[in-house]
């Protein structure tokens, strides 16, 4: 919102303007208060356009169209005067951002939210088409995001199906990139045009990029007509309905109702989780309600129209062009493009902070989606906190790529982030191990990948692969400390579970390197159960049993076997074995087990209290594992960008700088050895299983 200017009206019909919401070549949109006190968005057309009979006729049609289209996913018209000197149209005020603003600020939306977006927009278009109307300008800027779902707005160029166009021959109405091919060549328009645009909107919402690229309007229109859409990063579940909508042949596109059915069939569509939306709506609502009451009008004056805006001088026009505004005219239609610097920030010389883009490489839809979502939420909170601080030299933006938890998906995600030269560094991947091909791709692009969750080492790529957690075998250090200092044990039996996974050998070896008289090993091979090992532990009266394995289900079987054998000594395992399958599978036999893990519990850690509160407020739930570490990964990258001039020139500088930093995060202090390995002693935590849940005990050295 911007303050009113002296040229703005003080009354528009029965509405009293409070602030400017936006302005363009056609008119100005005001936040206004109705006579009854309700807030409204009032669009006032410039007088020079209103003097054009064809334009005025089109505006009459807009008002009539907007009144005819109902349903929950459009914005109701609350008033209009199409015959005024400066015609105006009022609708209910929606304090949410546009889809374009939300994606630009926060990155692509979750796949379930995109599905909900598509279903509801399809319903809005279905209502319009049933009323005999075609919107003709469905785009991210015409989709408002409310707390309960989207709202399709601006029927400014909608028209009755079969009606004669009121524009000049060959003129285009709509937005390149979302125009259907038949619109791009000034052919016949109808409901299929809106479905094509819907497909483009869903691509943008799910990936953050437009289906036919950026650049000049003629180039975008050419690609729309002759080339396939760019569906990189589009989740598999959305590919079929989106591809159907983007068919070049209008006859092959679904109707609005068919598109709704296609989207509904791909998965649940009742999830409306737009990161940061509730906070932004609350902020905008508070700002709107805090505006002062309008000044009293002069006696006898109930309405006022805005004064015609003065025509810009040639000098003023050229000055605007020099600072980034470029006018593109094709086919009788004009579009404004804004020149941006390489980082995605404001134009040089504008005085605004530049914006650096962070990549998030995560499994958001595959078997590791829970961990990927935790990363995403932690990163979003970190970006928001950074941007809210005063005195920072730059802003942060986020581009998320979903790899679906597959090797092929991971390679594609890494390629997209590496090829995007605006991406400064990456958080992720979020899988248990970083594929060598992914590490090599980031290394070739000199793009730092700050890894939060992967517990297995990827050798040979230390230059840009920055792992901020100890690897799983290193967790044995915390277990040894516990048995030596916290709960001393005279004898230790390691149950080496050979069916548990790749992490077994490292833990067993760490214990075997200790005094042989203190540690003995009982190997459980593939296909064997834990009964003999459990009975031997009790018979030998060992003080502690350490399960060396990576399977929570196998660890649960070990716990049950020990309980059945009557063993009551100390029982431990490393983090990979701590999971729901252990807590539910072991039952009461799991109570008292102690685990070493590499992630903190932000709900219990004092340093993460503010983060936990912010997470609950924004997402309605406490943070899951790895969320706090993902938050710290962003802080580490931002610190590197602040402390090197390479931040705005090359990625390699950031990659090198990361390993030289010490960063005091909310999950742990982060520092690195000369070998570029993280100092693990501050990044290991102990948990105890109690009553079917894992209770955080704290950093291992403090327990």
From TrEMBL:
Instruction: State the UniProt keywords alphabetically.
Output: ATP-binding, Kinase, Nucleotide-binding, Signal, Transferase
Q: Pfam families from the xrefs?
A: Peripla_BP_6 (PF13458), Pkinase (PF00069)
Q: Binding residues for ATP, per the UniProt record?
A: 43
Q: Where is the Protein kinase domain?
A: 15-263
PROSITE patterns xref list: PROTEIN_KINASE_ATP, PROTEIN_KINASE_DOM, PROTEIN_KINASE_ST
* Region of interest: Disordered: 290-315, 338-358
Stored InterPro entries: Kinase-like_dom_sf (IPR011009), Leu-bd (IPR028081), Peripla_BP_I (IPR028082), Prot_kinase_dom (IPR000719), Protein_kinase_ATP_BS (IPR017441), Ser/Thr_kinase_AS (IPR008271)
* Family, as annotated: Belongs to the leucine-binding protein family.
Protein name per its UniProtKB record: ABC transporter substrate-binding protein
